Amino acid sequence: MALVLILQLLTLWPLCHADLTSTVPPALYPKPWLGAQPAAVATPGANVTLRCRAPQPAWRFAIFKSGEITPVLYRDVSMELAEFFLEGVTPAQGGSYHCCYRNPGWNLGVWSHPSDTLELLVTDQLPPPSLVALPGPVVAPNANVSLRCAGRLRGMSFALYRVGVAAPLQYRDSTEPWADFPLPGASAPGTYSCYYHTPSSPYVLSLRSEPLVISADGSGSLDYMQGNLVRLGLAGLVLISLGTLVVFDWRSQSSARGSVRP
């Protein structure tokens, strides 16, 4: 019995790449892919499926969680894909996961390289995103500005709101943890906020971002004011010149009338 337990522990040893031996060429154990369905973000009580896909037929798959010594789940499946069903997930089940696989022809204790880490988040509400203006929050009338709404997770849906407008101004799905919303400079000034949510039901929403104020560049107004001052100055010079001519003509006529008297 003790020998059987030792063999099982060696088979499920969690350090996926620590026990690789020279008898198995590296090309035979490339890393698998790990994903979550319907999403890596779930509300408490929802069902989540972790899917580990190997680049070649495997015999055993294992799911490892960060901080755990042994695999939290494993399955014996003679194919490239293994599914692990998590029913009624709790916040305690959230965390960082990766998966490995092994082939019956490999030495005892040899696992593939681990997959990329999958962050599973179990929550009723996502943290608020940040909202920034690129290249900056002051926009010239003939320039454009892009508002970037950035969260923590990839594959989310993002919505941009403007104060005074009830419906979303723009809506985007993104494979990155952020989404960019381009705005023409002439109509950009205003106050904006954004949020993000999971792309499929059941939806998990984030809090709104802090408001961002976009203002117009005052250089155009300054140029216009300076132009008005120049025009007013020229008009003043014209009026002064006309006044001078009128006075000169009046004095000339007065002098002419004085010289005509007997």
Name the CATH superfamily assignment of the largest domain: Immunoglobulins
What percent of residues are in strands? Answer: 25-35%
* Overall body shape: elongated
Multimeric state: single chain
Question: Would you list the SSEs in sequence order as H and E?
Answer: HEEEEEEEEEEEEEEEEH
Protein described:
- The protein has helices at 2-11, 219-260, and strands at residues 33-37, 41-42, 48-53, 60-65, 73-76, 81-86, 95-102, 118-122, 130-134, 138-139, 144-150, 157-162, 170-173, 178-184, 190-197, 212-216.
- The protein is of the alpha+beta class.
- The strands form four sheets. A five-stranded mixed β-sheet has the order 2-8-7-4-5, with no helix packed on it.
- It comes from Callorhinus ursinus (Northern fur seal).
- One of its GO terms (biological process) is immune response-regulating signaling pathway.
- This is Osteoclast-associated immunoglobulin-like receptor isoform X1.
